[in-house]
Amino acid sequence: MKPDLKQIQAPIATEMTEFEKKFRDFMKSKVKLLDHITNYIVKRKGKQMRPMFVFLTAGVSGGVTESSYRGAALIELLHTATLVHDDVVDDANYRRGFFSVNALWKNKIAVLVGDYLLSRGLLLSVDNGDFELLRIVSQAVREMSEGELLQIAKARKLDITEEVYYKIIRQKTASLIASCCAVGAATSGAEKDLIEKMRDFGEKVGMAFQIKDDLFDYGEDEIGKPVGIDIKEKKMTLPLIYALNNASWLDKKRIIYLIRNKNEDKKSVNEVIDFVKASGGLQYATEVMKQYFEDALQILREFPESDYRDSLEGLVRYTIERKK
């Protein structure tokens, strides 16, 4: 059965409603302009998968507590800050189909808003003595930054191996979902080994999530981003890495030339996409994604059966079966 987000949310529906109210309060400012912008951000929230991971893992690990709300808010505040800053760096005018903060209020204000959200997250933890949560999330933000920088460095040389690719996505995507699950477990009062187990579970989910995202770039379903955008940005993802590793020397040279010099040309981008499809790159990436998915489920099934566990499994399935 296809996973449905509303059904997945059922065991934590009350917590999610309560979280929305608390999150708005955490973001409030006495500066009218700032309040106006943060309201705009909150209204354009996405699927809220990060807080769902926090509350469901807390439920599986021992139960949702007051600190679970603060942990979920900390992740949302720090992650939203990185997204606002990302849009400035990328000169992006849209976020989830809406105008980005920098498009509406210019770069200077966007950077300051990102700084404000970052400071709110830090203060929320410090004021409540949530130092372990702050350590978990700060580590994830550090890894995300390192992953992005490693990807940029490798895009210049176009020399990413499969091993380096896994390191990049582990840092830039999986570390965030891993921190959601570790925070959920930590706020339920779980022991260190159980928190680590949940972090490992979240990391595997995050790896599967990012590979699914990379598959969308080849026209696999719809995600709201144009096909071939990774190729245009010279991002070496798993389908392409596999295809190049199994290509003849001549084909490899030709494809790398197209990515390096013709990445803005639609015909050349389509040629790269066709090459990856013909080389079995999509099938290979799909198999790797499914293996991470199975590994995540194996960890989850070590926990006692409950509605929380069922929903968490549904959320994991959703990450790899989503169409956007």
| Spatial gap, N to C terminus | 18 Å
Query: Overall pLDDT, averaged?
Result: 88
- Class from helix and strand fractions: mainly alpha
Principal-axis shape = globular
The low-pLDDT segments are none
Rounded radius of gyration (Å): 20 Å
Number of strands: 2
User: Approximately how much beta-strand content do the residues carry?
Assistant: under 5%
**Tally of individual helices:** 15
Helical content band:
over 70%
Give helix and strand order, one letter per element, not per position: HHHHHEEHHHHHHHHHH
The largest sheet is: 2 strands, antiparallel
How do the strands line up in the largest sheet? 1-2
Cofactor: Mg(2+)
Keywords: Magnesium, Metal-binding, Transferase
Pfam family, one: polyprenyl_synt
Protein name: Polyprenyl synthetase family protein
Give a written overview of the molecule:
It holds the Pfam family polyprenyl_synt. One of its GO terms (molecular function) is metal ion binding. It comes from Arthrospiribacter ruber. Its cofactor is Mg(2+). This is Polyprenyl synthetase family protein. With 324 residues, the chain is mostly helical. It is 76% helix and 1% strand. The protein contains 15 helices and two strands. It has a two-stranded antiparallel sheet. β1 (94-95) and β2 (98-99) form a beta hairpin. α11 packs across α14 (281-300). The radius of gyration is 20 Å and the shape is globular. The relative contact order is 0.12.
